[in-house]
Protein backbone atom coordinates (compact mmCIF):
# COMPACT_ATOMS: atom_id res chain seq x y z
CA UNK A 1 0.00 0.00 0.00
CA UNK A 2 2.95 2.30 0.61
CA UNK A 3 3.06 5.91 1.79
CA UNK A 4 1.23 9.07 0.82
CA UNK A 5 1.07 12.79 1.56
CA UNK A 6 -2.02 14.81 2.31
CA UNK A 7 -1.46 18.46 1.45
CA UNK A 8 -4.29 20.52 2.93
CA UNK A 9 -4.18 23.75 0.94
CA UNK A 10 -6.81 25.36 3.17
CA UNK A 11 -4.08 25.64 5.84
CA UNK A 12 -1.08 26.84 3.84
CA UNK A 13 0.21 30.31 4.76
CA UNK A 14 2.98 30.36 2.14
CA UNK A 15 5.65 30.65 4.83
CA UNK A 16 7.96 28.67 2.49
CA UNK A 17 9.47 26.68 5.37
CA UNK A 18 8.95 23.50 3.32
CA UNK A 19 10.67 24.95 0.26
CA UNK A 20 13.71 25.94 2.31
CA UNK A 21 13.82 22.61 4.18
CA UNK A 22 13.76 20.74 0.87
CA UNK A 23 16.69 22.76 -0.45
CA UNK A 24 18.65 22.26 2.75
CA UNK A 25 18.08 18.52 2.99
CA UNK A 26 18.77 17.95 -0.68
CA UNK A 27 21.80 20.29 -0.57
CA UNK A 28 20.51 22.16 -3.60
CA UNK A 29 22.01 25.59 -4.23
CA UNK A 30 19.98 28.79 -4.02
CA UNK A 31 19.08 30.35 -7.34
CA UNK A 32 19.35 33.95 -8.40
CA UNK A 33 15.91 35.44 -7.98
CA UNK A 34 14.45 38.39 -9.82
CA UNK A 35 11.51 40.63 -9.05
CA UNK A 36 8.92 39.54 -11.58
CA UNK A 37 5.86 41.06 -9.96
CA UNK A 38 4.96 38.21 -7.61
CA UNK A 39 5.93 37.04 -4.15
CA UNK A 40 6.55 33.60 -5.63
CA UNK A 41 10.25 32.99 -5.85
CA UNK A 42 11.87 31.56 -7.86
CA UNK A 43 9.51 31.80 -10.79
CA UNK A 44 9.40 28.11 -11.66
CA UNK A 45 10.57 24.67 -10.64
CA UNK A 46 14.07 23.76 -11.81
CA UNK A 47 16.58 20.97 -11.35
CA UNK A 48 17.74 22.94 -8.27
CA UNK A 49 14.27 23.89 -6.97
CA UNK A 50 12.28 20.67 -6.81
CA UNK A 51 9.71 22.09 -4.44
CA UNK A 52 8.08 25.46 -5.03
CA UNK A 53 5.35 27.36 -3.21
CA UNK A 54 3.29 28.91 -6.00
CA UNK A 55 1.16 32.03 -5.45
CA UNK A 56 -1.92 33.00 -7.39
CA UNK A 57 -4.38 35.85 -6.98
CA UNK A 58 -8.07 35.30 -7.56
CA UNK A 59 -11.13 37.50 -7.18
CA UNK A 60 -13.77 35.62 -5.24
CA UNK A 61 -17.18 37.35 -4.97
CA UNK A 62 -15.51 40.69 -5.43
CA UNK A 63 -12.84 39.98 -2.78
CA UNK A 64 -9.18 39.52 -3.66
CA UNK A 65 -7.79 36.21 -2.39
CA UNK A 66 -4.38 34.63 -2.44
CA UNK A 67 -4.07 30.93 -3.17
CA UNK A 68 -0.92 29.05 -2.21
CA UNK A 69 0.18 25.81 -3.78
CA UNK A 70 3.33 24.03 -2.55
CA UNK A 71 4.24 22.00 -5.64
CA UNK A 72 6.18 18.73 -5.79
CA UNK A 73 6.22 15.43 -7.68
CA UNK A 74 2.97 13.51 -7.04
CA UNK A 75 4.58 10.04 -6.96
CA UNK A 76 1.90 8.74 -9.32
CA UNK A 77 0.75 5.18 -8.64
CA UNK A 78 1.28 4.50 -12.33
CA UNK A 79 3.87 7.08 -13.25
CA UNK A 80 3.86 8.08 -16.93
CA UNK A 81 7.43 9.44 -16.57
CA UNK A 82 8.71 5.98 -15.65
CA UNK A 83 7.61 4.51 -19.00
CA UNK A 84 9.89 6.78 -21.04
CA UNK A 85 13.45 5.45 -20.41
CA UNK A 86 14.73 2.60 -22.60
CA UNK A 87 16.37 1.20 -19.50
CA UNK A 88 13.60 -0.11 -17.20
CA UNK A 89 15.95 0.30 -14.22
CA UNK A 90 16.34 4.05 -14.73
CA UNK A 91 13.14 5.13 -12.93
CA UNK A 92 12.01 2.89 -10.10
CA UNK A 93 8.91 2.55 -7.95
CA UNK A 94 10.25 1.92 -4.46
CA UNK A 95 8.54 -1.28 -3.27
CA UNK A 96 8.00 -0.27 0.32
CA UNK A 97 6.90 3.35 -0.01
CA UNK A 98 5.75 3.60 -3.64
CA UNK A 99 8.08 6.58 -4.19
CA UNK A 100 8.97 7.19 -7.84
CA UNK A 101 12.75 7.46 -7.77
CA UNK A 102 15.07 8.69 -10.53
CA UNK A 103 18.18 6.51 -10.11
CA UNK A 104 21.69 7.41 -11.28
CA UNK A 105 20.83 5.66 -14.53
CA UNK A 106 18.21 8.33 -15.23
CA UNK A 107 21.09 10.73 -15.93
CA UNK A 108 21.74 8.87 -19.16
CA UNK A 109 18.16 9.31 -20.38
CA UNK A 110 16.58 12.16 -22.34
CA UNK A 111 15.28 14.39 -19.57
CA UNK A 112 13.02 16.50 -21.80
CA UNK A 113 11.14 13.40 -22.96
CA UNK A 114 10.70 12.41 -19.33
CA UNK A 115 9.35 15.88 -18.52
CA UNK A 116 6.93 15.78 -21.43
CA UNK A 117 5.44 12.53 -20.18
CA UNK A 118 4.52 14.05 -16.81
CA UNK A 119 0.89 15.23 -16.66
CA UNK A 120 1.82 17.57 -13.80
CA UNK A 121 4.83 19.13 -15.56
CA UNK A 122 7.22 18.32 -12.71
CA UNK A 123 10.65 17.03 -13.88
CA UNK A 124 13.24 19.65 -14.84
CA UNK A 125 16.51 19.24 -16.75
CA UNK A 126 19.71 20.96 -15.57
CA UNK A 127 20.72 23.19 -18.50
CA UNK A 128 24.40 22.42 -17.95
CA UNK A 129 24.58 18.75 -16.98
CA UNK A 130 21.35 17.79 -18.84
CA UNK A 131 20.42 15.61 -15.87
CA UNK A 132 16.72 15.52 -15.00
CA UNK A 133 15.65 15.98 -11.38
CA UNK A 134 12.56 15.96 -9.16
CA UNK A 135 11.42 15.17 -5.60
CA UNK A 136 12.21 11.61 -4.42
CA UNK A 137 9.87 11.62 -1.37
CA UNK A 138 12.99 12.06 0.81
CA UNK A 139 13.35 8.31 0.45
CA UNK A 140 16.52 8.29 2.56
CA UNK A 141 14.73 9.96 5.48
CA UNK A 142 11.60 7.84 5.13
CA UNK A 143 13.66 4.63 5.11
CA UNK A 144 15.26 5.82 8.34
CA UNK A 145 11.82 6.26 9.94
CA UNK A 146 11.78 10.07 9.58
CA UNK A 147 9.27 12.36 7.91
CA UNK A 148 10.14 13.99 4.58
CA UNK A 149 11.92 17.30 5.23
CA UNK A 150 9.04 19.39 3.84
CA UNK A 151 6.52 17.69 6.14
CA UNK A 152 8.80 18.01 9.17
CA UNK A 153 9.19 21.75 8.51
CA UNK A 154 5.53 22.63 7.99
CA UNK A 155 4.11 24.47 11.03
CA UNK A 156 0.45 24.61 9.96
CA UNK A 157 -0.66 21.02 9.36
CA UNK A 158 -0.75 21.59 5.60
CA UNK A 159 1.82 18.85 4.99
CA UNK A 160 0.97 15.38 6.30
CA UNK A 161 2.67 12.07 5.56
CA UNK A 162 2.13 8.45 6.51
CA UNK A 163 0.70 5.11 5.45
CA UNK A 164 -1.53 5.57 2.42
CA UNK A 165 -4.61 4.20 4.18
CA UNK A 166 -4.21 6.68 7.03
CA UNK A 167 -3.69 9.59 4.64
CA UNK A 168 -6.79 8.68 2.62
CA UNK A 169 -8.78 8.62 5.86
CA UNK A 170 -7.36 11.96 6.97
CA UNK A 171 -8.13 13.35 3.50
CA UNK A 172 -11.83 12.49 3.86
CA UNK A 173 -11.95 14.02 7.35
CA UNK A 174 -10.22 17.22 6.30
CA UNK A 175 -12.39 17.45 3.17
CA UNK A 176 -15.59 17.22 5.20
CA UNK A 177 -14.32 19.96 7.53
CA UNK A 178 -13.17 22.16 4.64
CA UNK A 179 -16.49 21.89 2.81
CA UNK A 180 -18.25 23.67 5.68
CA UNK A 181 -16.30 26.79 4.79
CA UNK A 182 -15.52 26.11 1.13
CA UNK A 183 -18.44 24.33 -0.57
CA UNK A 184 -16.36 23.60 -3.69
CA UNK A 185 -13.46 22.02 -1.77
CA UNK A 186 -12.19 18.81 -3.35
CA UNK A 187 -9.44 16.20 -3.26
CA UNK A 188 -7.25 16.33 -6.36
CA UNK A 189 -6.56 13.03 -8.16
CA UNK A 190 -6.53 10.94 -4.93
CA UNK A 191 -6.76 7.62 -6.78
CA UNK A 192 -3.83 8.35 -9.09
CA UNK A 193 -1.25 9.98 -6.85
CA UNK A 194 0.57 9.65 -3.54
CA UNK A 195 0.55 13.42 -3.02
CA UNK A 196 -3.10 14.21 -2.47
CA UNK A 197 -4.03 17.89 -2.45
CA UNK A 198 -7.11 19.22 -0.72
CA UNK A 199 -8.07 22.30 -2.75
CA UNK A 200 -10.46 24.91 -1.32
CA UNK A 201 -11.58 26.01 -4.78
CA UNK A 202 -11.28 24.83 -8.38
CA UNK A 203 -7.71 23.45 -8.79
CA UNK A 204 -7.11 25.47 -11.97
CA UNK A 205 -7.39 28.67 -9.90
CA UNK A 206 -4.20 27.64 -8.06
CA UNK A 207 -2.19 26.52 -11.08
CA UNK A 208 -2.78 24.93 -14.48
CA UNK A 209 -1.10 21.68 -13.51
CA UNK A 210 -2.40 21.20 -9.98
CA UNK A 211 -4.85 18.70 -11.47
CA UNK A 212 -3.92 16.42 -14.35
CA UNK A 213 -5.83 17.19 -17.51
CA UNK A 214 -6.96 14.39 -19.80
CA UNK A 215 -6.10 16.61 -22.76
CA UNK A 216 -2.45 16.29 -21.67
CA UNK A 217 -2.47 12.74 -23.00
CA UNK A 218 -0.89 13.23 -26.37
CA UNK A 219 -1.28 11.25 -29.54
CA UNK A 220 2.00 9.40 -30.19
CA UNK A 221 3.02 11.62 -33.08
CA UNK A 222 2.94 14.80 -31.03
CA UNK A 223 5.00 15.52 -27.94
CA UNK A 224 3.33 17.37 -25.13
CA UNK A 225 5.67 20.29 -25.68
CA UNK A 226 4.84 20.58 -29.37
CA UNK A 227 1.20 20.39 -28.46
CA UNK A 228 1.53 23.13 -25.86
CA UNK A 229 3.51 25.27 -28.26
CA UNK A 230 0.73 24.92 -30.82
CA UNK A 231 -1.90 26.05 -28.39
CA UNK A 232 0.24 28.51 -26.50
CA UNK A 233 0.50 27.82 -22.80
CA UNK A 234 -1.34 27.71 -20.48
CA UNK A 235 -3.59 25.12 -22.02
CA UNK A 236 -6.71 25.70 -19.91
FE1 LIG B 1 6.52 11.14 -12.69
FE2 LIG B 1 5.26 13.46 -12.94
FE3 LIG B 1 4.05 11.46 -11.69
FE4 LIG B 1 6.14 12.67 -10.56
S1 LIG B 1 4.19 13.60 -11.02
S2 LIG B 1 5.79 10.45 -10.69
S3 LIG B 1 7.38 13.19 -12.35
S4 LIG B 1 4.66 11.50 -13.86
FE1 LIG C 1 11.73 17.97 -1.20
FE2 LIG C 1 11.79 15.70 0.22
FE3 LIG C 1 9.58 17.19 0.24
FE4 LIG C 1 10.29 15.88 -1.97
S1 LIG C 1 9.67 14.97 -0.03
S2 LIG C 1 9.58 18.01 -1.87
S3 LIG C 1 12.51 15.99 -1.88
S4 LIG C 1 11.58 17.79 1.04
FE1 LIG D 1 2.59 26.06 3.32
FE2 LIG D 1 3.51 24.43 5.26
FE3 LIG D 1 5.04 24.99 3.16
FE4 LIG D 1 4.56 26.88 4.97
S1 LIG D 1 5.69 24.99 5.30
S2 LIG D 1 4.48 27.12 2.72
S3 LIG D 1 2.43 26.40 5.54
S4 LIG D 1 3.10 23.89 3.14
Can you tell me about this structure?
The chain has 236 residues and is an alpha+beta fold. The chain folds into two domains: 3-72 and 138-214, Alpha-Beta Plaits, CATH 3.30.70.20; 80-136 and 225-231, Alpha-Beta Plaits (2-Layer Sandwich). Helix content is 24%, strand content 20%. The strands form four sheets. It has a four-stranded mixed beta sheet with strand order 8-1-10-9. The chain has a two-stranded antiparallel sheet with strand order 2-3. The chain has a two-stranded antiparallel ribbon with strand order 4-5. It starts with a strand and ends in a 5-residue tail after the last helix. Bound molecules: iron/sulfur cluster (SF4) (3 copies). One iron/sulfur cluster binds at residues 21-22, 25-26, 50-51, 72, 135-138, 148-150. The site of one iron/sulfur cluster has 14 residues, from helix 1.
Amino acid sequence: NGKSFLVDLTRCTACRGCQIACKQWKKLPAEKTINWGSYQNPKDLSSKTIRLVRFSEVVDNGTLRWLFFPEQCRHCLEAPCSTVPDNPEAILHDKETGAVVYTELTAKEDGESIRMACPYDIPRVDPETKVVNKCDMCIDRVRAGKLPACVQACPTGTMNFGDREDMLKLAEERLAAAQEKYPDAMLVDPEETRVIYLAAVDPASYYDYLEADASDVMPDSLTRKQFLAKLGRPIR
